[in-house]
Amino acid sequence: MAVSNALLALVPSVLIVALALFLEMFAALLWNVVTVSYRQRFIPDALLGRVNSIYRFFGWGLLPFGALASGAIVVMAEPDLGRTLALRMPFVIAAVGSFAILLYGLVWLQIDEE
């Protein structure tokens, strides 16, 4: 996701943007298959509906707040950067945040191999 957001922010080519969006959606498809399979395997049947509802609540319920934050970022950046660059700022921030989360995961969430 970090790479696709960086491409969306930095590359003006429609073809490359389409490829970035395709790769991001393909990764999302894989993520959904893996997480649903994992939950179905390890969550007891009596709790599965509740766990899935919480997962969907946070996964889908926070999307409007992300859109609102993106709009606020564009509005704040537009006077200084102009419309074209301001519209790219949410993708720059998303790419930086995604890279930061990736680095955090690589450093702190390593699995001990014994």
Q: What is the overall number of helices?
A: 5
Calculate the terminal CA-CA distance, rounded to whole Å: 31 Å
| Percent of residues in β-strands | under 5%
Order of helices and strands: HHHHH
From the alpha-carbon coordinates, what is the Rg to the nearest angstrom?
18 Å
Q: Strand count, sense and closure of the main sheet?
A: none
Descriptive key words:
114 residues; mainly alpha; 5 helices; globular
Task: Note down, in words, how this protein is organized.
This protein has one domain (2-108). It has helices spanning 2-10, 14-42, 45-61, 63-81, 83-108. It is an all-alpha fold and 114 residues long. The radius of gyration is 18 Å and the shape is globular.
Write the layout of secondary structure elements.
Elements: H1 2-10, H2 14-42, H3 45-61, H4 63-81, H5 83-108
Helix pairs in contact: 1-2, 1-5, 4-5
What's the gist of this structure?
With 114 residues, this protein is an all-alpha fold.
